[in-house]
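hey team, just a heads up i'm posting the complex here instead of the shared drive bc the drive is being weird again. everything in one block, sequence lines first with there labels, then the predicted structure for the whole assembly after. its two chains so it's a bit long, scroll down
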Amino acid sequence: MLQIATWKRVLIWAVCAAGLWAAMPNLFYSRVEVHNDAAAAVAARGGDPTPAEAEAIARWPDLLPGTLVNLGLDLRGGAHLLAEVQLADVYAGRMDALWPEVRDALRAERAAIGSFNEGPSEPGTLRIALSNPEGMARALEIVQGMARPVVSLLGPSGNDLEVRAEGSEIIVTFSEAEQAATDERTMRQSLEIIRLRIDKVGTREPTIMRQGANRILIQVPGIGSAAELKALIGTTARLTFHPVVRTGVAGDAPGPRQIAVPASESAEIVYILEEMPVVTGNELTKALPAFDQNNRPAVEFRFNPTGARKFGDYTAANIGQPFAIVLDDEVISAPVIQSHIPGGSGIITGNFTVDGTTQLAAQLSAGALPARMEFLEERTIGPELGQDSIDAGRIAAVVSMLAVLVFMVASYGWFGVIANAALMLNIGLLFGMLSAIGATLTLPGIAGIVLTIGMAVDANVLVFERIREELKTARGPARAIELGYEKALSSIIDANLTTFLIAVILFAVGSGPVRGFSVTLGLGIFTSVFTAVFVTRLMVVTWFEWRRPKTLTV
Amino acid sequence: MRLRLVRENTSFDFFRFWRVTFGASALAVVASIVIFAVQGLNFGIDFRGGTTIRTDGAAEIDIAAWRAAIAPLGLGDVSITEVFDPGFEAGRHVAMVRVQAQEGAEATSPELIAAIETALRTIDPTLTFPAVESVGPKVSGELVTSALMAVGLSLLGVMAYIWVRFEWQFAVGAVVALIHDVVLTIGIFSLFQIRFDLAIIAALLTIIGYSINDTVVVFDRVRENLIRFKQRALTEVLNLSINDTMSRTLMTSGTTLLALVILLVLGGDVIRGFVFAMTWGIVVGTYSSVFVASQILVFLGVKRDWTKGGTAEGPSGTRFAGKDGTGA
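-- predicted structure starts here --
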């Protein structure tokens, strides 16, 4: 009759124990947080922990689980930005840069083409008006000849320029493949720059996430305001190339017209550089991860014509000398000039990994944000408001929990006590799952938990009410309990599946707070069904086997 | 002595006064639509763009003086509302200042926000600004679309599920009840001009989830009783089923409402609108399961012979409850 196989009993209790184990660190939130922060700081730096860090790490044993439920911005305070990257800016800039090149190429064949000039055009398009229509064929050929193949992940996919004639005008635009590749690169660079800038401030767990084709979501806990965050992101990186006088250690004094710049990998090493840069990042047009002739990871770069001239002259005169690349007052690399670099493009080799070159290329291209950003959403939440919300939510959760507990015992007696044990277990499991998946708890999320407290009893109520009914007709208490569970199951599944359906839709369509809520709601359904169908049943059966009551009052 | 919300073996006739109950629901729906048409909703910045600034200070809030201080900035539509909460200690005054979206800009510029803050500080130097939020018109438009989509999709999803698990009449009944709940919630938000933002959409969807939960429990019992009592009249079977489940319905609604009312009082003002929507929705949703969803079944009639053909799942109610004591 009321039989549950031993392995099932073991499994059910094991699941409960695992859930509670995972939830446990949340009871010691600040302690675990301090431990995690210190451990992360030490891991990032790679050295030995300072005494303060060691003390922080010792506050929570490594053997115990250390993952916590993340607190959302509305609970912790901080700033939130949704930025839209103006991708079309990049086309406009590149098209403007293309004109001098096209002009020079056409000028060389002026005899065949006749005179021409740049016509007015929308950004991202180049219009060249020819005065002599007979020159069109040749001019078209020349401009088309300037197109280069686009290399994407899927291999070559056409040329970067689309050139066509319209009346007496040649119209040049970027091809779709080139636009897609450019957009992708612009987004990556923007993300990389933003990440670099925010990492500089060293705040805890910033979220920097791409959203859709052209948006970036930035959430930084603990920062004073969205305006501060914008200023931080908006600061352009200063990228300069300097001749290296010598390398030294921290504290070395630079000579006249020289500057001391620390290396990015260690503040102990200092480069003494000439103050006047040879070229600056404003003159760099491209930097890409590549490989050198020995197949070692390297970074390939290209200057614009003026930068190329300066760079060519300097490299010709200084072969064998180190050359420092300085980003935001740090030397990120000081390669040795291997040869004269005439064409304005070159390659930086060194002790790089593939990841390293990707990052360096991004940093180099990342001199400044590649495109303007428009801010669609800005939110600042003060930490005190977040704390108020946490306090209010905690009090509400505790009080409503107590109220529900009392209510259940008053209504169902001993069975109410069992339901209450399951309810508390339920909350524990919910926190365990939230921690395990690294979910972020927001204010609506807390409301979701409180709602779960209310609704979690539903499944148990369904069962208990059914047992009550069956007691009137069934043969003995054991049969009534069995039938109660059996018959209530259909309702429990139907009712919870529909609610779960809603949670899934909320998660898929919603954003921000709605999403946070849907996660707690959805997980809450899981845990409440699990506790009602498996755990309370097991508790009831265990109790029944122990007491063997002849009659039953629910 | 056990607490009983409902006496044992109740036998209310829930359809006796159907003209009154269903009429009241119909009237409330019409009234909600009219109120909505007349005064619309007090949309938050999530849906119409603009900026809200939360202020926190020691001085009494004189809204006229605040308006006068901000007026020289020429911001267009500005609304100032004081926020009250039992959690605030005496002498603490919190307000929300909302400024419309500015021409030619997505999010409001930091300079403008700083200007507003400076202007307000001339009145109350102790003011702090614990939250500043700004949403551009572009995003707010998208948020409206995605919110409508979420509500529409959930209604469709629920309808499809019930149709598959029950019969089409049940699906119609359930969805009419859900629309009833959503419309009534929008109606009360319009009536009291409570701020309607993204979180309220989440609340609406939860109401849909809760209400359907309630309806399904009743329907499940209806299906079971239809099989047991093949000869009885439909209203009789419906009445029996609602009476059977009444105790459970009130217990669950009771505990959930208990939790929500406590949250409403103690949960702080930031989520009050959200919790209010949920509380209201649960009252309305519980009512509609009985007086709307089941009433629709009475109107539409249902197939009485569940034994052959029609449903593919065999005798209903046994689908998830096998003889082997499903589950554990």
